[in-house]
Structure formats: C-alpha cells, structure tokens
C-alpha cells in the first residue's frame, strides 16, 4: 500500500511517501531561489507523493529565529514560491506549505526586526524564564490574521494546502504545552483551552480559502529545550487534545517523533502516529528517522565523530501502513541524501541508497 496512490481531501497522491519539512536556510531576503525550486522538483520527479515545504516564516514581526528562511510577505518571495510550485507540479508532484511562527525560540536581536522579542502565551521562553513578550488577545488576533493571510497567498500561488507548525517549542506548541502556557483566559488551563489558538487559526483559514484547500497540523511531544517533555501523558490526554482539533475540521495530523519505532505509552507497542490515527480517525502522518539507523540529534549534535547515518529498510512502516496504523510516512534526511530514495525503496534497491552525511545537511541537492 505504501507505493500505491492515496487521496487526501480530494488530492490524489502517487503514493503515501511525504517529504518532511526541513529548514534549508537558502532563501536570502526570504526569497526562494531557482536552486530551491530545483531542489523540490528533483524529489517530486523521483516519485515523492507529497512535499511539505520547509518552514515558511509567518508574515508577522516576531515570527523569525533563523537566517535566510523563506517568507511570503513580499512580491519577490511569492514569485519565488510560485516558481517552486510550478516546477513541482510540472513533474506530477503535490506540495503544501508549512507555516511557521518561532514563538519562544526567537530572541531579541534577531533579524529582520532585532528590536522585537519572541512572542509566547505567557512571556516564558523556558520553564521559569520570562524573556519573551506575553501575548495579549490583540496579539493573538493579529497572529491569527497573519496565518490566514499567508494561507490565502499560498492558495493563490498554487499550493495544495498548508501545514501549521505546532511542534518543537514553536509558537502554536507554546500554547499547547502547559509548562509555557500559564494563561488564565480561554487560551490556557485545560487541554481543550490550550488548543484554542490552533483551532481559531484553522477555522479562520477555512473561512477564507476554497473548499478543496488542505489544512493540517504538525505536533510533537518533545521540545527543543527538553527532549523528554510530554505534551500529553496518556491516551486519555491525547484524546482530549485531539478532540477539539478534529472538531475544527482539520484535514490531517502529522506527529513529529525522533524515532518512529518507539512506543508512545506504556503497555502498547504503538507509536504516537498510531495512537493519533486510532483516536482521531483522521489521515495521519508518521515520521522519525525513517530509512536511517540514527536519529537527527545523533547525526547533527551529539555524534561529532560520526555525523552519518546508514540506510535502513522500511519493513516496519510498510507493515504499519498496511495494517492501517497510520496513512502516510514522512521522510526527511534520507531524502536530503538521496532524492531518488522513494524509487530505490520501491524497487528494493536498499544497497543503492546514498547514505546521509553531514554534507547532506549542508548541501542543497
């Protein structure tokens, strides 16, 4: 089933393989270059079913935290993305844009507005550290409007939809996580209230786009400053988290994990994606070192002497998809290293797959 077509809200994908969103830092001035377009086209041409773009910084003054990331709030940036979309679709691909507000990760002094601090629900950037701007309801409304405007631009450009980045300690995740969300109003407190920021955004977007435009959400347990963090601690808490998201009309959920093979809750072998699919009954994407023998941190931060990962077989994810545990798989670093990964895996050519190395991360190929 992994290599057979799949339909996501009317969008026919050639297979269930998704290119995971990965920050590339190759868009000076926020404008995706011709090289960026060629990078995405190369993978679409090589049978990736759906591409989720790298994070696109939201059109808001406090959204950015990294250099040379793409945006949408200039004509030049939108023209750059239009070129990307046209080249992907020219070879039969599908692509959605990931919309990204960095929230707690942003620090004062960062470009393009160095005087602007990070924005978070309660001013917290980490437990006990109040170094960000505590968002007012006016701020929440402004950011919601920015997400909506960016989604409108994405539809006009030709993207098939958007994914809201609600993982990894970025802004939407800051609202989800009770450690950073100490609000006493309708955006804080219960799990349901902590999803309100996200569901407000989803509903606002749906009110402004066409009926076939896809809106999904990526979320995670782990945080950049705490890899053992838990957004939810049990299946019942996960259900309480998912229920309002599903009620918002969201089209898919993308569960970000470092290692897809690890069980999420005690007493079950199922990962977070499997639990999410079972509870939500929504199209669900599983991700986390698929196709490699090491996770991201082992090849970028901790293992300085061996910043590489060998190709691994995908029997487990093939089996999980066939059993209906989740619907799609997102592949990241394996596709950075080898644009033809999907073809080679379909043909059973594991030995021909190019290994991931530190150069894979540094190159735009």
From TrEMBL:
| Coiled-coil regions listed in the entry | none
The family database entries (CDD domains) matched by this protein are listed as:
OYE_like_5_FMN (cd04747)
> Which residues does the UniProt record annotate as the domain NADH:flavin oxidoreductase/NADH oxidase N-terminal?
2-350
Which Gene Ontology molecular-function terms are recorded?
FMN binding; oxidoreductase activity
Q: Which GO terms describe its cellular component?
A: cytosol
Annotated InterPro entries = Aldolase_TIM, OxRdtase_FMN_N, Oye-like
Q: What is this protein called?
A: NADH:flavin oxidoreductase/NADH oxidase N-terminal domain-containing protein
Species the sequence originates in: marine metagenome
